[in-house]
Amino acid sequence: xxxxxxxxxxxxxxxxxxxxxxxxxxxxxxxxxxxxxxxxxxxxxxxxxxxxxxxxxxxxxxxxxxxxxxxxxxxxxxxxxxxxxxxxxxxxxxxxxxxxxxxxxxxxxxxxxxxxxxxxxxxxxxxxxxxxxxxxxxxxxxxxxxxxxxxxxxxxxxxxxxxxxxxxxxxxxxxxxxxxxxxxxxxxxxxxxxxxxxxxxxxxxxxxxxxxxxxxxxxxxxxxxxxxxxxxxxxxxxxxxxxxxxxxxxxxxxxxxxxxxxxxxxxxxxxxxxxxxxxxxxxxxxxxxxxxxxxxxxxxxxxxxxxxxxxxxxxxxxxxxxxxxxxxxxxxxxxxxxxxxxxxxxxxxxxxxxxxxxxxxxxxxxxxxxxxxxxxxxxxxxxxxxxxxxxxxxxxxxxxxxxxxxxxxxxxxxxxxxxxxxxxxxxxxxxxxxxxxxxxxxxxxxxxxxxxxxxxxxxxxx
Length: 462
Known about the structure:
Elements (H helix, E strand, L loop, with lengths): L7 H15 L13 H6 L14 E3 L2 H7 L3 E3 L1 E3 L4 E10 L4 E5 L4 E5 L6 E2 L4 E6 L1 H53 L5 H53 L14 E4 L4 E6 L6 E2 L4 E6 L4 E8 L11 E5 L12 E12 L4 E6 L13 E7 L6 E5 L4 E3 L2 E7 L6 E6 L2 E4 L3 E4 L8 E3 L3 H8 L7 E3 L5 E2 L4
Helix pairs in contact: 4-5
């Protein structure tokens, strides 16, 4: 397939120009007027003089649409001191988040690949025996802790009763001692009272020791309960399901929700599959968390430094507007490649354009120190007509008119070129469709003309 078969509008334009040159077609279908000699011979008066020559071409809206005409603005740029390096976008290390199963079990997926998620969106549910065991252990330990309260209360009452009994027998023994001092009482009563007091004190000591054991057991059970509860709460908080109660009941399984917004990138398990503890299930990526990495030459290290202003420009020849760029500060890589003699150039854009994606190729434009800004236009806005570089400037006073100009060019950085005269900052030049305009006006740049709505050009006015 040749170039003409790929551009039907171009073919139509060329055919129209050839037809006009041969005098076979035109807007005016009336008979060709007689030549000047014929008019003179027949006594006819000469017609009006031909229209004044011009380098303007009509490009109304319908023509711009059919020919795919686009425009770019004239900008002030430091072309002489701009270093351009190719590179591509890559995800930040923090852009990916893996979700794993905290316990082994059967996994039920709740999302699909490439599905966008928000914080709190359920990702998957794990039916794990360990989750049910955890609930049972918490319930059993809670029952033990709850039963310890009444038991210790009974021990405290028994202890108080024995303490009161000891106090009574101590009082009784005191009275018997006083009675013996007065010459009364019997030795057997005194001995029996002392034996009873000693037995009661021993029983009180046993009860107090048992209560201490119960207290230690209660503290141990409470610690185990806190540990089990903390593990449960940690799993629930780690699921990031917000205020939802999904996954908090033992029979409902354990549900894991998204922590941050993003898009499901990969799924590491089949629906209903068995996952091991800490097994990978889902990876969610935030595609807007990207940076640009280019590879510059080590020979340019004398010109480069951290903090230089940098611009990430879209790839040429596509549908992305040239002005849809991203800006940031240059950061040199920590190490260089000794074999390739290159060094990494990294830029974190201040804002991410809609067209930016991980893996998309683009160019990094670094403004070096020195130089001055000059008026420049995109290099692709130029088109060659023989040995001349032609640019079509949009008429500022009439947006439906283009002015053909021979470009007065200066330095070029491979994407932009300095234009020394004929334009001012903010003017628009034809970017897309300039080749068709050149073909239509080639060799006739000083003749008036206009385009038809079907994209064909006519040199004479209606």
